[in-house]
Amino acid sequence: MAEPGPAEQPPSPRPATPGVAAHSAPSGSLVSRIGSSRGYRYAQTAWKWKGLVLGGVAVTYAVVSWNAEKAKARKRDTIHPNTYLYWKIYDGGIVEAKSAGSNLNYLLSSSQRGAPEEPPRVMELFEVIRTIKFVENDDRIKGIIADFSHTSIPSVPSYNLGLAQLEEIQDALLELRRVKQERLGRDEWRTVAWTDTFTSQGQYLLASTFDEVYCQPTGEVPLVGLGSTTPFFGRLARWLGIEVHAEARKEYKSFVQPYIDEKFTDPQRENTHQLLSDLNDNLLAYIGRNRFSDKSGVNSLEHVKALTQVGPFSAAQAKEKGLIDGLCYRQDVLDSVLLGKKEEEVGEPKEIEEPKKVEQEDALVKAATAAAHEQKPENKLMGFYHYHKVLEKAVEKHMAQETIPIGVVYLQGTIGDVGEFGTASVVRGLKEAGEDDTIGAVVLRIDSGGGSVIDSDTIWGAVRDLREKYGKTVVASFGNSSASGGYWVSTHTDAILAAPSTVTGSIGVAALRPTFLQCFFDRLHISLESFFTGSRAQDPTHSLTPAELDRYRKSVDDMYDDFKRRVCEGREISPEVIEGIAGGRVMTGLRAFEINAPKELIDHLKGLDIPAAEGVEAAASKEEAPKIQQVEASSSGEGVADTKEVAAAAANGPVATLPEDQETSPFAVPEVASTPELAAPVDTAKVPSSPSPTDAATPTTNPDSSAESDPAAAHAQQALLTSTPEELAASASLAKQKGASSVGAVNGAAGEYEYEPGPYGRGLIDGLGGLRDAAVYACQLFIANGIAGYKEENPGVSDDEAIRMLLPDAKFAIMEDGEVAMQVDVTLKRFPVQKSFWQQLAVR
């Protein structure tokens, strides 16, 4: 029989368990042993559940990475004892309000890092002042290093701070020095400024506030005083064939003069010269106070004035004149602070010597040098912006229920319906603030020299609605300038605060009407043919007739009279005397304050009430500590405050209060209050100290620690407003009798000055102060008015009960005199609310 063919053979049996090979391996083979092993079975199970396994690995990796990053963040955010803040200061780094340009500044600078500082950050002026107030109550911070150099800064259009803004920062730094030296001792607090070169007088002005100022050997100090040059186009206009008709009310209104003439009139020249002299005196008074107040027998202001006649100065010349303390490089300053080097190693540049052979070098010198570079720094360094963010996070976490938000609306630049800070934005911001139930008071921050009368009146109407329709308290805060239309919009606010160098006033109206004559068009070979059905008064090719000119002048007169009427009504000034401060006069904030302030207080502000010998003696005691000193690191944990405790410092005393006497600011106002009883706050109380909860041997603090772990955390606050209910109630009562913000007295360390308002009423401004002062003052007025309103609706209620009902979440503390004082944190909330890109997209 024949054998069956391949096609007829039965198929091979299918393996019972599919494996790598299609056929089962012989028993006892390697493959068989692997297939029956425990590891193989585990691998089979893992492959079966591979999705869950990979997901678990991914989740585990994510959790571990998140915890690692959080641990790094905690370590990075820990503020050690003996910490110095590194503050990078450059043009555009501090702004009034962040805008699209500020955000571009941040984006372009995010990758530019130059050790040891953090990338340049943009901070608002209020954030800078608030951070300085944080430092006042933080005993871990032993000093500030300010870097004014031009390395690692963004290449975007800069924003230069004006004199008024610089004065606010300076006053905060001077107050910081006074508080720190009182609490820590003169030898335990140190501020140092360094730059490669100073590019402006304003930059040097701010640097002079620091205890020590150093400059690179090739730098310079451009101290030359203030100056101004105005071009006049009258002859050019006439040559071109343009006839410019101008109306100004009145003789001091110089806005139109450059377009119609070849020089200022005598009143305009006198006013301009006085303004420039006042600003120059303010600038040089600060520099003189900061650098030369300890020189016996020297009038610091006159001494600096003499220096401006021979400026600018090279770095070497500036050191010789006493404008800076030494010539060095940045690393020399850092070594001095972090490694405790001596003064002579920092204040002088190292000489460049010829190279020497290695064999000739002393072995001991080499060993000592290597050891000096390898030693661990005794002091720590932390970025100023980083410190601000850490403290703000702690405040937000531990003090959310104790915060009173104050609205802020920014009006900047020429008043008109254009730009991010134009009329539409300001009006919308005021309306949003009025509709926000969490806001009881609003600060209108103005930095404008004026603009359109129509737009100014529109904003004025929005301010009126904010007060009358929404019942909000409104305080105007003047920045570098608030003149003409800038003053128009603030006439009916509850109070006005300005800096000594704010440019204000200019209560007047000006209008221009150009006429293009036939010769203008003949030069261009242009012919015209016109048709009119009515008046030709608005045709720029038509000269006004006498009747049209009379109507034009009448319109300007009406606007001027309306302006004066608003000032008289809002500021309670007699119409009989308004012309003496109107007429277009421009003045500084200090001179505007003089109009209605007691002469004794003005003398005190200018230092005229301090005998020369007494002033020199007081100033000489300020600089006793050596310039370069070694700061010993503490390992005991004493004097170390937790981050949340720093925010907990209680404040007593007057806000809108600049530093005391001539020990700090040359324009130190002990207190600017709208009523005798109303006082505003300064942060002065000592911060409770405690060792680190994590490591007693190496004291550090953790900003994320629980608030319940320390009783002080229950009262955590910074920038605290401290006033008794009785004081606030009395303030509201007096304000109701005399007007919302009638100034009746000014109290403080320099004495109490009482006076009658007289024909000038409340004057042009209510007091001297910056943005933070205005915010705290607005908070006080809001609380005072709230107490009065509640008591009027509920007769028989005590002041204490009224304020507890008004602010149920506020903390109360027992003061030294037994009074119960309220303590809250004052923050700013910007309007209109800034929406993100996605929020704006969602609305559309």
Automatic annotation (TrEMBL):
SUPFAM superfamilies associated with the record: ClpP/crotonase
Q: Where is the signal peptide?
A: none
Please cite one Gene Ontology biological process associated with this protein: proteolysis
Coiled-coil region list = none
Q: Which CDD domains match?
A: S49_SppA_67K_type, S49_Sppa_N_C
Q: Which domain of life is it from?
A: Eukaryota
Q: Which InterPro entries match?
A: ClpP/crotonase-like_dom_sf (IPR029045), Peptidase_S49 (IPR002142), S49_SppA_67K_type_N (IPR047217), S49_SppA_C (IPR047272)
Entry-linked Gene3D superfamilies: 2-enoyl-CoA Hydratase, Chain A, domain 1 (3.90.226.10), 6.20.330.10
* GO terms for MF: serine-type peptidase activity
> Which region ranges are annotated with the description Disordered?
1-30, 621-641, 682-718
Q: Where is the composition biased (Low complexity)?
A: 688-718
Tell me which UniProt keywords the record has, alphabetically.
Hydrolase, Protease, Serine protease
Q: Where is the composition biased (Pro residues)?
A: 7-16
Peptidase S49 domain ranges (all copies): 191-336, 469-609
Family of this protein: Belongs to the peptidase S49 family.
Q: What is this protein called?
A: Peptidase S49 domain-containing protein
Q: Origin organism of this chain?
A: Rhodotorula toruloides
